[in-house]
Design goal:
This protein has 622 residues and is an alpha+beta fold. The chain is built from 21 helices and 22 strands. The strands form 4 sheets. The protein has a 9-stranded mixed β-sheet. It has a 5-stranded mixed β-sheet with strand order 10-11-14-12-13, with helices on both faces. Helix 1 (13-25) packs across helix 5 (115-125). The chain is elongated.
Length: 622
């Protein structure tokens, strides 16, 4: 071996897995490799410009930051170069041999056999540099960090088959040059026209010049093939929808177009420009509280940091975008941002902008907003607790299934609910359950169905918690129909005829046989078809909350429901005629167990419930 510093390494297991999946599933989107490489080059230029504020010598005499594309049709190669920050040997090993994002392994584990679904998921994950291997047999990265000497360069090469080699080398340029040796069937990319088209389509908005060697017989030098101005600095009327979409794909690495965007310049005391987007799909780590989130921060067009989280609240973590502030200090750090004057005011203005953008989407395109709600609704609901200042705006965005929904995708706003309410209806009624089917089967709905009153059906995991922050909407109180104190419009129900109801002595007997397993027993006016239901006290902790707290290992105070019985129900009438006390107690326990089952829960002691029921059934058969 002549060269002792050339070493072969294995890719991290996740990289191997990603490469294999990506090459197959992204085949129909293969041209995205160029967008990814140009995007990385642009990031590298951003970083160098940022570091050179503190250390101007990093730029040397190579001050014109740019990206250069070149190709050799005969050799079937394509080269992407930048004079940005570059990589040291260690950087190359860490950045081009591993995936640092937490949750990657679980993410990859989720991918299955469906290639289209994989493509969609991988697209959200962001494939980045590794996308080169969709079109290349071999990738060679030559790089030198801006603060290192000529002989401290590194050459990274790989065929994407599980290994890469690293070699230290002398490089006469700063930054990174990536050479792709295209697969035989991908040589179309070694073509001027094809490259130019792709750059115009996907990378026009890159804020640095993207150049190619000039074309034509005796052309010299380079020509710039993109607009090379930061998109957000242009005025709204000059930017086309397509350009907005491509810029979104650049900052988010999403395959899909965004659902909406909002581009604003704020002038006056605090000057800044923001460009916010609502994605259509959730990132795979939406529920990982540690996942990076936030806007890309620029100060006077100089890139400062990715994922600046101080500019939006946690419940808007799915919003992507850029904020370019005119008067933040250039050396602002993540830590400093928290205490920098003005950042708080920007955060509250950007929060309002994001909410306004969502509201506008909901009025412009109800169907699309419905999809956004399906994807991010649960996250937005966190805002009800977190952001009291914007609760009213958030309430306008809420969507719920109701007793009128024929399927789960059919949702209504509070405004629509209020609009449709029954005459004399003062409250907004809601019911929480584990699923739409469970909600619809709840005995608590019977009287509402009978009187034609709509009820909101809340089935998300956090609904009970989120709704506890809402007391009223449009002056109308929200009322949980499973709790005490239910008031229905139209006054008292008309009493059933005496001969059709059980003797109300049955209530006292029930109290006696159920003992203190229930808080109370009383006749119900909310039941029609069911014999009984359980009603919680107003301030009881709800079922969802109880389960969540218990799952978190917390002790939850016991709360006893009240049993309401339907005196007109056949079973209850039969009970009141039962002389045998043992049989009566069995029936009472079965009625309570059924009421629990009807709420989607298990009877307090399932084995006892089954035994009791069997005892009754065998008695009935005898
Ligand atoms: P991401 O861009 O999302 O970080 P990539 O897979 O595209 O993921 O790139 C991985 C890392 O490799 C980058 O974060 C960066 O550190 C490094 N890298 C890639 N291309 C370049 C480049 N042209 N110059 C400097 N570093 C680069
Ligand atoms: Mg990248």
């Amino acid at each position: 071996m002549t060269d002792t510093n050339q070493t072969t390494y294995g890719f991290q297991a996740e990289v191997k897995q990603l490469l294999k999946l990506m090459i197959h599933s992204l085949y129909s989107n293969k041209e995205i490799f160029l967008r990814e490489l140009i995007s990385n080059a642009s990031d590298a230029l951003d970083k160098l410009r940022f570091e050179s504020i503190e250390t101007p010598s990093l730029l040397g005499d190579d001050t014109e930051l740019r990206i250069t594309l070149d190709f050799d049709a005969d050799a079937g190669t394509l080269t992407i170069s930048d004079n940005g920050i570059g990589m040291s040997r260690d950087d190359a090993a860490a950045n081009l041999g591993t995936i640092a994002r937490s949750g990657t392994a679980e993410f990859l584990g989720k991918l299955g056999d469906d290639e289209r679904e994989n493509a969609r998921l991988i697209g959200q994950f962001g494939v980045g540099f590794y996308a080169s291997f969709i079109v290349a047999d071999e990738v060679c990265v030559e790089s030198r960090r801006a603060d290192l000497k000529a002989d401290e360069g590194v050459v990274w090469t790989s065929r994407g088959d599980g290994e890469y080699t690293l070699e230290s080398a002398e490089l006469d340029f700063r930054g990174t040059r990536i050479t792709l040796t295209l697969k035989a069937e991908e040589r179309e990319f070694a073509d001027r026209f094809r490259i130019q088209n792709l750059v115009r389509r996907y990378s026009d908005h890159i804020a640095f010049p993207v150049q190619m060697p000039a074309s034509g017989e005796d052309a010299e030098g380079f020509e710039t093939i993109n607009s090379a101005t930061a998109l957000w600095t242009r005025s709204r009327s000059e930017v086309s929808d397509d350009e907005y979409r491509e810029f979104y794909q650049h900052i988010s690495h999403d395959f899909e177009a965004p659902a909406a965007w909002s581009h604003n310049k704020v002038e006056g005391k605090r000057e800044y420009t923001s460009l916010l987007y609502v994605p259509k799909r959730a990132p795979f780590d939406l529920w990982n509280r540690e996942a990076p989130r936030g806007l890309k921060l620029y100060v006077q067009r100089v890139f400062i940091m990715d994922d600046a989280e101080q500019f939006l609240p946690l419940y808007l973590r799915f919003i992507r975008g850029v904020v370019d502030a005119a008067d933040l200090p250039l050396n602002v750090s993540r830590e400093l941002l928290q205490s920098t004057p003005g950042v708080e005011a920007m955060r509250s203005a950007l929060t309002k902008r994001a909410l306004t953008m969502l509201k506008r989407l909901s009025t412009d395109d109800e169907t699309l907003f419905g999809e956004i709600w399906d994807t991010f609704g649960e996250v937005l609901k966190e805002g009800l607790a977190e952001d009291t200042a914007n609760r009213d705006q958030l309430m306008e965005l809420l969507r719920f299934n109701t007793t009128a929904s024929t399927d789960a995708s059919q949702r209504e706003s509070l405004a629509q609910y209020v609009e449709r309410r029954k005459e004399g209806q003062e409250a907004i009624y809601f019911l929480t359950a584990d699923s739409l089917a469970a909600a619809k089967a709840s005995p608590h709905l019977e009287v509402f169905r009978k009187r034609g009153i709509e009820v909101l059906l809340l089935t998300d995991r956090l609904d009970e918690w989120a709704i506890s922050y809402l007391t009223e909407y449009d002056g109308k109180p929200l009322q949980d129909i499973r709790r005490d104190g239910l008031e229905l419009p139209g006054g008292e129900p008309e009493p059933a005829k005496a001969e059709d109801v059980a003797d109300d002595g049955v209530i006292e007997r029930l109290k006696g046989s159920l003992g203190d397993s229930v808080a109370d027993v009383r006749a119900s006016d909310r039941l029609v078809d069911s014999p009984a239901c359980l009603v919680a006290a107003r301030d009881d902790i709800g079922d969802q909350m109880r389960r969540m707290l218990e799952a978190a290992g917390q002790e939850v105070p016991e709360s006893k429901p009240t049993l309401e019985i339907n005196l007109a129900h056949g079973l209850v009438r039969q009970m009141s005629g039962t002389k045998d006390d043992a049989r009566f107690t069995d029936l009472a326990n079965v009625v309570v167990g059924q009421a629990q089952i009807a709420e989607g829960r298990l009877p307090s002691d399932p084995a006892v419930y089954v035994n009791t029921l069997n005892r009754l059934l065998s008695g009935a058969v005898d």
